[in-house]
Protein backbone atom coordinates (compact mmCIF):
# COMPACT_ATOMS: atom_id res chain seq x y z
CA UNK A 1 0.00 0.00 0.00
CA UNK A 2 1.26 3.51 -0.75
CA UNK A 3 2.11 5.71 2.20
CA UNK A 4 1.13 9.34 2.71
CA UNK A 5 4.06 11.42 4.04
CA UNK A 6 3.19 13.65 6.99
CA UNK A 7 6.58 14.53 8.51
CA UNK A 8 10.07 13.13 8.06
CA UNK A 9 9.42 10.43 10.64
CA UNK A 10 5.65 9.91 10.27
CA UNK A 11 3.75 8.58 7.29
CA UNK A 12 0.25 7.14 7.11
CA UNK A 13 -0.71 3.97 5.33
CA UNK A 14 -3.36 4.58 2.67
CA UNK A 15 -5.48 1.80 4.19
CA UNK A 16 -5.81 3.76 7.48
CA UNK A 17 -8.00 6.37 5.75
CA UNK A 18 -11.63 5.56 5.02
CA UNK A 19 -13.15 7.88 2.42
CA UNK A 20 -16.75 8.01 1.33
CA UNK A 21 -18.62 10.37 -0.94
CA UNK A 22 -22.01 11.94 -0.71
CA UNK A 23 -23.97 14.69 -2.36
CA UNK A 24 -23.08 18.23 -1.41
CA UNK A 25 -25.62 20.48 0.23
CA UNK A 26 -26.52 23.96 -0.87
CA UNK A 27 -26.97 25.56 -4.30
CA UNK A 28 -25.47 24.15 -7.47
CA UNK A 29 -28.33 23.43 -9.81
CA UNK A 30 -28.61 20.14 -11.66
CA UNK A 31 -24.95 19.24 -11.12
CA UNK A 32 -25.24 19.01 -7.32
CA UNK A 33 -28.22 16.68 -7.59
CA UNK A 34 -26.45 14.13 -9.76
CA UNK A 35 -22.88 13.85 -8.47
CA UNK A 36 -21.38 12.72 -5.18
CA UNK A 37 -18.86 15.54 -4.85
CA UNK A 38 -18.64 15.87 -1.04
CA UNK A 39 -15.95 13.73 0.60
CA UNK A 40 -16.08 12.38 4.15
CA UNK A 41 -12.76 11.14 5.54
CA UNK A 42 -12.52 8.97 8.65
CA UNK A 43 -9.22 8.29 10.41
CA UNK A 44 -9.07 5.99 13.43
CA UNK A 45 -6.49 7.66 15.63
CA UNK A 46 -6.71 5.12 18.45
CA UNK A 47 -6.00 2.15 16.17
CA UNK A 48 -3.35 3.83 14.00
CA UNK A 49 0.04 2.09 14.20
CA UNK A 50 1.67 5.00 12.37
CA UNK A 51 1.36 7.57 15.16
CA UNK A 52 3.24 7.64 18.47
CA UNK A 53 1.08 7.75 21.61
CA UNK A 54 2.09 11.34 22.45
CA UNK A 55 1.01 12.53 18.99
CA UNK A 56 -2.29 10.61 19.33
CA UNK A 57 -3.00 12.38 22.62
CA UNK A 58 -2.25 15.86 21.25
CA UNK A 59 -4.19 15.08 18.05
CA UNK A 60 -7.25 14.16 20.12
CA UNK A 61 -7.07 17.55 21.85
CA UNK A 62 -6.65 19.40 18.55
CA UNK A 63 -9.49 17.50 16.85
CA UNK A 64 -11.98 18.41 19.56
CA UNK A 65 -15.56 17.84 18.39
CA UNK A 66 -14.36 16.40 15.07
CA UNK A 67 -13.36 13.24 16.96
CA UNK A 68 -15.93 10.64 17.97
CA UNK A 69 -15.99 8.89 21.35
CA UNK A 70 -14.36 5.84 19.70
CA UNK A 71 -11.30 7.89 18.68
CA UNK A 72 -12.17 8.38 15.00
CA UNK A 73 -11.60 11.77 13.37
CA UNK A 74 -14.34 12.62 10.87
CA UNK A 75 -13.66 15.40 8.35
CA UNK A 76 -15.99 16.56 5.59
CA UNK A 77 -15.22 18.70 2.56
CA UNK A 78 -17.81 19.96 0.11
CA UNK A 79 -16.40 23.36 -0.84
CA UNK A 80 -15.72 22.47 -4.45
CA UNK A 81 -17.86 20.96 -7.19
CA UNK A 82 -14.98 18.58 -7.89
CA UNK A 83 -14.73 15.38 -5.88
CA UNK A 84 -10.96 15.28 -6.50
CA UNK A 85 -10.45 18.78 -5.11
CA UNK A 86 -12.58 17.94 -2.05
CA UNK A 87 -10.57 14.74 -1.50
CA UNK A 88 -7.30 16.67 -1.65
CA UNK A 89 -8.69 19.34 0.70
CA UNK A 90 -9.85 16.88 3.36
CA UNK A 91 -6.53 15.00 3.26
CA UNK A 92 -4.57 18.24 3.53
CA UNK A 93 -6.63 19.23 6.58
CA UNK A 94 -5.96 15.88 8.26
CA UNK A 95 -2.23 16.12 7.55
CA UNK A 96 -2.15 19.69 8.90
CA UNK A 97 -3.81 18.51 12.13
CA UNK A 98 -1.27 15.68 12.52
CA UNK A 99 1.65 18.03 11.82
CA UNK A 100 0.32 20.43 14.46
CA UNK A 101 0.08 17.53 16.92
CA UNK A 102 3.75 16.61 16.38
CA UNK A 103 4.92 19.88 17.93
CA UNK A 104 5.60 19.41 21.64
CA UNK A 105 4.38 22.46 23.56
CA UNK A 106 7.06 24.17 25.57
CA UNK A 107 6.37 24.11 29.30
CA UNK A 108 5.93 27.53 30.85
CA UNK A 109 8.74 28.48 33.15
CA UNK A 110 7.47 30.21 36.27
CA UNK A 111 9.13 33.57 36.90
CA UNK A 112 9.03 36.10 39.72
CA UNK A 113 8.24 39.77 39.17
CA UNK A 114 11.34 41.97 39.23
CA UNK A 115 12.07 44.25 42.17
CA UNK A 116 11.56 47.32 39.94
CA UNK A 117 8.14 46.10 38.72
CA UNK A 118 7.07 45.44 42.32
CA UNK A 119 8.15 48.96 43.30
CA UNK A 120 6.27 50.49 40.33
CA UNK A 121 3.16 48.54 41.29
CA UNK A 122 3.29 49.68 44.93
CA UNK A 123 3.93 53.32 43.89
CA UNK A 124 0.90 53.18 41.60
CA UNK A 125 -1.26 51.74 44.36
CA UNK A 126 -0.13 54.48 46.75
CA UNK A 127 -0.90 57.18 44.16
CA UNK A 128 -4.41 55.76 43.56
CA UNK A 129 -4.97 55.52 47.29
CA UNK A 130 -4.12 59.19 47.83
CA UNK A 131 -6.44 60.20 44.95
CA UNK A 132 -9.29 58.23 46.52
CA UNK A 133 -8.51 59.60 50.00
CA UNK A 134 -9.09 63.07 48.59
CA UNK A 135 -12.65 62.14 47.64
CA UNK A 136 -13.79 61.94 51.27
CA UNK A 137 -16.11 64.37 53.06
CA UNK A 138 -14.79 67.85 53.75
CA UNK A 139 -14.13 68.65 57.37
CA UNK A 140 -14.48 72.29 58.41
From TrEMBL:
SUPFAM superfamilies to which the protein is assigned, alphabetical: Release factor (SSF75620)
Gene3D superfamilies registered for this protein in UniProt: 3.30.160.20
InterPro entries noted in UniProt: Pep_chain_release_fac_I (IPR000352), Pep_chain_release_fac_I_sf (IPR045853)
Residue stretches spanning the membrane: none
EC numbers: 3.1.1.29
Biased composition (Basic residues): 127-140
Cited PROSITE patterns: RF_PROK_I (PS00745)
Region annotation (Disordered) ranges: 108-140
Major enzyme class: hydrolase
A Pfam short name: RF-1
Keyword terms, alphabetized: Hydrolase
One of the record's GO molecular function terms: peptidyl-tRNA hydrolase activity
Domain Prokaryotic-type class I peptide chain release factors: 23-39
Protein family per UniProt: Belongs to the prokaryotic/mitochondrial release factor family.
Classification via PANTHER family: PEPTIDYL-TRNA HYDROLASE ARFB
Name of the featured protein: Alternative ribosome rescue aminoacyl-tRNA hydrolase ArfB
Species of provenance: Novosphingobium humi
Amino acid sequence: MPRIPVTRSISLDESELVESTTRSSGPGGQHVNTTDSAVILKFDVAASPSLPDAVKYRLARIAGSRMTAEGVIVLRSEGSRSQLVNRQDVRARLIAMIVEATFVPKARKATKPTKASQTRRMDGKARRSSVKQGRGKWKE
